[in-house]
Amino acid sequence: MIRLGICGFGYWGPNLLRTFAANPAFTIAAVADRDASRLVNARTGNSTLRTYSEADELIDSPDLDAVAIATPSGTHFELASRALRKRKHVLVEKPMCTSIAEGRELITLAEREGRILMVDQTYLFHPAVIKLKELKRSGALGTISYYDSLRVNLGLFQPDMNVLWDLAPHDFSIMHFILEEDPVHVEATGYCHVNPHLPDIVYVTVHYASRMIAHLNLSWMSPVKVRRVAIGGSRQMAVWDDLDRDQRLRIYNSGIEVQPEDQRNVIMPSYRIGDIYSPRISDREPLDFVVEHFRRVIGGEERSLLDGRLGLQVVSLLEMSQRSLDKSLEAVEDLRRSNATLRAVR
Fold it and tell me: What are phi and psi of 336, to 5 degrees?
């Protein structure tokens, strides 16, 4: 039996508690949160559950084998590193940490202490994502030309995180998992509407050596929630709409065909419009698979798909995107100031 403690009981903590409690290999021994009302909710139905106001106290508990960390992202490195030093296995929410340097240190710590460091990139266990990877690896999609993601909703505004760091980790992990290729260049732009220092709309474009391109539309300012990904291949195209309960994944036998340059008089592609089919996608919650995978990796039964190196890859892309975003925001602000000065002079 693996005795587990949960650090943070806000948005994601209750999901972790419910899912870990449903797995017979885990016993939820403790929960930590600074909000007393949340701790009251955590104890509902479990009178033996220990509660702490500080995550450090929970981590220091000698009887715990593992911790799940669902606190604000700025605390992930401090808490994960403390837990690893206390020789506890760690499942930490995305992003794993806030810098490449922190990520490398966490990986080194986990290796030195012989503990499991895993990042809860839940979507890698989504049946639709697994199906897309199968289609990519089998060659059914052909040569991938683009990955296009629309990931928008109204809020939740984070006090310590912009929309890039909140939503992009999902796509960055999915892209790495399906495409199996590292990017060569990243561009990002956006705008701050609510908090002047935290962009709430961000557009990211990722370029690959294979001439593939990925584009992410990330927003907390949309009147509707959308979670849709389109992948274009030379043989087939796929659209994954995670909010469509009936047809989450659609495969289009459609594409564009262009004759070799020496065989054409004009650059005019031909369009191939074929059938559409929707494979059956399991309704099982991806977090169930993450928790079971965590158990198996701790037990040495499986190699981790969500290890620190994946977390580091995601953080690296976030840092690259943030640098580009900062430059874009600064350039736009300089232009605004210049235009305002010109209008004032006139």
Answer: -60, -45
